[in-house]
Amino acid sequence: MSNQIVKALEHAAEKLGTTLARDAGKALKDLYRSAGQNLKKVAANVRSVEEKHAKDLAEIFEGGRKDLAHPRTGAGGGRGGRRFEGRGREQVRSPRQAGRREDSICPGGEPVDMATGRMFIKQVDAELPGSLPLLFVRNYESGYLAGRWMGPRWTCTFDERLEIDAEGVVYLSPDLFAQAYPHPEPGVPVQASAGVRWELALTDRGDYTLTDPATDTVREFTRQPGGEEALLTAVRDRRGRRYTLAYDEDGAPLSITHSGGYTLLVTTDGDRITALRLAGAGEDGRDALLMRYGYTGGHLSSVYNSSGRPMRFANDSGGRILSWTDRNDSRYLYTYDQLDRVVDEGGADGALRFRFSYGDPDPDTGIRVHSETNALGHTTQYHVNEHAQIVAQVDPLGNALRFERDEFDRLIARTDPLGHTTRYRYDGAGDLVEVTRPDGERAVVEYGPTVGLPVRVVEPGGVTWQFGYDEHGHRTSLTDPNGAVTAYGYDERGHLATVTDALGHTTRIRCDAAGLPVEVVDAGGAATRCERDAFGRVAAVVDALGGTTRFRWTPEGLPASRTAPDGSTETWTYDGEGNLLTATDPAGRTTAFEYTHFETLAARTGPTAPAPPSPTTPTCSWWPSPTRSAGAGSTATTRPAGWSARATSRAAGPPTSSTRRAARSPPPTRSASRSATPTTRSAAPSPRTPPGWSPGTTSTRRAAWSGPSARTPS
């Protein structure tokens, strides 16, 4: 199936899930990139209105660090007595703008939402793999004011909640989107007036559930004393895999416990989260410290990882980020207007500078023209309608891309600079059912009446794929265009257990409680075993001949060493931002790397012999059927997360422009376990580079933004 059709059927792919969405090679590439790349968001603050803050920066930079208290224990029932001021209703005064998710946001600058002018940051501080991955996210937006546990403009996993008032129910996502729902009646789910088509239901106890029909992921919210809010207390999938969020008697976060065995522990000081640990993942079975957080004036001002060095934020009195300084002392500055929009940004030395302007609505069309000018003087224009939707993007050469979206922010048409239009049609449930290409050829998706998953996909030209499912939504069969059938079986927990190809050859897979494979036996009886650490990462692979390869990792999930069956060892070291500093091969030859501003490679010193390879990220990920893209029909439980019979290594050297963004973003705090290949869709969207956006180079890095229809599930 072609890449074009994969993109056209991305919504169908989301319905199917992502476990079989990528071949092992692409999964490995994505995995290393997510483990090794550092996205830096640059900004500049040169306007005189912000000069008064400059003298305070030194004090702010050094503030906020405290000794950490031990995590508290408590009832964890989720019905605490702590009271916060509700800010949710303010966030949904413009429902269509508030309901936009990351895949419909067009980023400019470093990074700025070009529809609203607001600066945003997406971070993942812990990512634990499994059939239902567990993420601890931390996100920022300059215009957001409903955050709690990390300050008003930041949100995290424990900020996800419902606020209930006379008008209805407001859902606040940790991923910075918000939705307004009417009050549901028991047994009668309701949908929001704008945004994703999730279903809010009232339980018999007076609590709430919020269901994503595309994945059958259910969020459970427990109503708090006073009845004005309901906190997120559990997330579960269609097979009952779940994780629960615990709070103390005052409603302060305590922990997140996963059915696969993970427990994230949270330390709080007053109304702020100050540390994140993984239970039992440290030396001698102690808890492993993942992140520390410091605050100044209640605003997040420092984030420490395992390097012991902070990522520092300088904020104004309202919590807007005026500058950030990474763990290598690269600094970015921001200037805002009175509407919290970025107007100027760039490095402290003027590098990677961007300027922004925001036009007034056209009296006839209501369209506003927003402009971004980079350090080379090249200007890109964005035409924005009253719903904060980008309807046109005009590059510095005058080439225009045009977009049409419906009231739920779904892409319905995309016209390229040559006037070629691709159209998208959805059914009443919001599922993509038809894509019409510029040449008139169509791709069609048919959905089943029970599980709501694609049962038939017809590509342009008539090539047809068919899929079968059980009552839990697991794919049980795939019939390719030639009529060959591949069958899938599952264990009692819903993890993939067998794959039988069209010739009757069966591969057997054994998974752990999290859904990660620990053994694969091929049709010939050869077995490969995988040992994992407390983070779910591959610690050892024992091949069919008994040879053992062992791996060590940094707390951020970067490869630290690999020892082959013959005892030879390769090692790698990194700086505080995860840039590769040294790579030592089995012969003891070392290649060293040096960096200048914004993690740009400045020097490489190596032996005269061939340079040692960069870290191999082992994947225990298994691909049971021929290499097939998401559009060919994958399902969330047909491939165990993280199994592969092969491992590959990247060419020597640190990440380059092809593996991480040339135009940096504030360095994401790497997850505790990026390298374990969580291949099923998380309950919370993963905060990656917005899909449909091609980085390109620093000066022209934004290729034509194509919107969510170009998304490949990750």
From TrEMBL:
Region (Disordered): 66-109, 556-585, 604-714
Low complexity bias locations: 617-642, 670-686
Gene3D superfamilies (UniProt xref): RHS repeat-associated core (2.180.10.10)
Start-end of Basic and acidic residues biased regions: 82-104
NCBIfam families listed in its UniProt record: YD_repeat_2x
Residue ranges constituting the DUF6531 domain according to the UniProt record: 109-175
Secretion signal, residue range per the UniProt entry: none
Pfam family, one: RHS_repeat
Cited InterPro entries: DUF6531, RHS_repeat, T6SS_VgrG/RHS, YD
Protein name per its UniProtKB record: DUF6531 domain-containing protein
